[in-house]
Amino acid sequence: MNMQVWNPFQEFENLLSRYNRGGGISTQQSSDLSFADWAPSCDIEEEKDRYIIKADLPGVDKKDIDVKLENGVISIRGEKQVEKETGKGTKRHRTERFHGTFARSFTLPDAVQDERVDASYKDGVLSLVIPKAEEAKPKSIDIKVS
User: Does residue 131 contact residue 49 with C-beta atoms inside 8 Å?
Assistant: First the structure.
């Protein structure tokens, strides 16, 4: 008998991918979750001059997070270490929190200023501020009356 491991995150990523095909920021699921044990939850906001991505990474050390922006795709990867037993005589009964490698990637729909991306990490939340390039910002056109 062949058993297959069910990965609910893969199904969720597939659903998000189908939903996002209409435009906007889309997720890159196939390569990410083949590499990763889990995917962090993320919020994405768009303002007129920038994108903001916030990823929940509770318990992850800053040194274990890698962020890359390449060819319009921003990737968040890393690893959350398993907590060691707290002491002699301690027995762990259940582990429900995620650990191991993680990954998320998003394709940005517009050109961005790669050199001005700002990343900060506070209270288990990674915040990425990605400024849009000048040509990607909407421009007003004055209408002349004749």
Answer: yes
SS (H, E, C) the chain: CCCCCCCHHHHHHHHHHHHHCCCCCEECCHHHHHHCCECCCEEEEEECCEEEEEEECCCCCHHHEEEEEECCEEEEEEEECCCCCCCCCCCCCCCCCCCEEEEEEEECCCCECHHHCEEEEECCEEEEEEEECHHHCCCCCCCCCC
How many Å separate Cα 110 from the centre of its chain? 17
Measured at the CA of 21, the angle between CA 44 and CA 99, to 5 degrees, comes to 50
Q: Under a CB-based contact definition with an 8 Å cutoff, are residues 102 and 77 in contact? A: yes
Average pLDDT over residues 115-129: 95
| pLDDT value for 109 | 80
pTM of the entire structure? 0.68
Task: Show the tokens assigned to 133.
Answer: 């390039």
The type of residue at 110 is D
**What are the structural domains of the chain?**
8-81+97-135 (2.60.40.790)
